[in-house]
Amino acid sequence: LPLIQFVQSVVESNPRVQAARAALDAGGAFRDAASRPLYNPELSFDAENTDIETRTLGISQTLDWGGKRKARTAVAESDRLVVEAEYLAARWDVTVELLGGLAQHQTGAERDALAQSRQLLMDEFAALAQRRFDAGDLAQVELDLARLASTDARIRKATAGAGLAEARQAVRNLTPRSAVGQWPTLPDALPALPKSAADPQSLVVALPEVLAAQRQVETADAVVELRRRERRPDPTLSIAGGDEDGETLIGLNVTIPLYVRNRFSHEVTAALAERSRAERLADDVMQRAHARLVSAAERYELSRGAWGDWASTGQASLMRQTDQLKRLWQAGELSTTDYLVQLTATLDVQESALDLREALWNAWFEWLWASGQVDAWLGKGAYQ
Prior knowledge:
- Helices cover 70% and strands 9% of the residues.
- The chain is of the alpha+beta class.
- Helix 1 packs across helix 3 (68-134) and helix 3 (68-134) packs antiparallel against helix 4.
């Protein structure tokens, strides 16, 4: 629950998401504007003073004979749906970026703690080596090796500290005013892929990027229809009434533009080409989204299997290994070089385990995005 609440609060206040929301509101306003009548009536007044005084008052209205208003509304609504999909994509981008930052920070903090433990072990090892050297039980070469190991541990500690600072920046990029202590931790145990993962196509078609591409095709279709309707001339109807030297005047006038010199056919041809382009791009987006989902599932299953093996056997074995190595070296049953090599390997395995867990988290977040299950996971906490 703390993770869900934290992510939701950060996403809602994120400027990128708010900008996408403003764009969505603008899209709705543009749709409403397009649904309004295309032409306004025109009022006219004529006065003429010659031998005969003439006064006329008229009103004219151009009629949307070709149904352009309906076509414009369809275009604007399709554009709004595109922006709606982009708004959802922006939310998911920020969510996954935040989760990835939390994973990087949590791993960086534990890697920094491991580097601190490495430094303490190597400092202790160097101190013990110095005492054994002073007692004549250790050669100068082995003492120098212990000192080098201690120096290397300090370098690793400094590097881990810099990495932790960089990881914190990844989270602060999205929530600069929150304290590090308020950041939630991520679960070590992640769920298996749900049954819906067996049908990637059904997940892909609901992705924001795929929906946006499909909406672009629908927009192109609507533009084609609009261009065709724009080829139909709209007549203007005028009615006038007045007085001419005491006589009542009533007039009716109808004008129709003649599309002779320009029939506006090239606009239709261009719209059809744009529609074909949008369709091809939508196919490309679909293919890439499908490949991304399948690959994300494969990476997650591999990472989860490796992490399961480590959690069940490797972690406990590693803790026993560190204690045994120290006892063997102090008892003289293990050379300094062998002790250092094996202890370093043990610590390196622990660091590799941290990298594996971070890779597991990132693979899970990647699958959530690729499958469109970001909101579902945060809403439920885990699949049942």
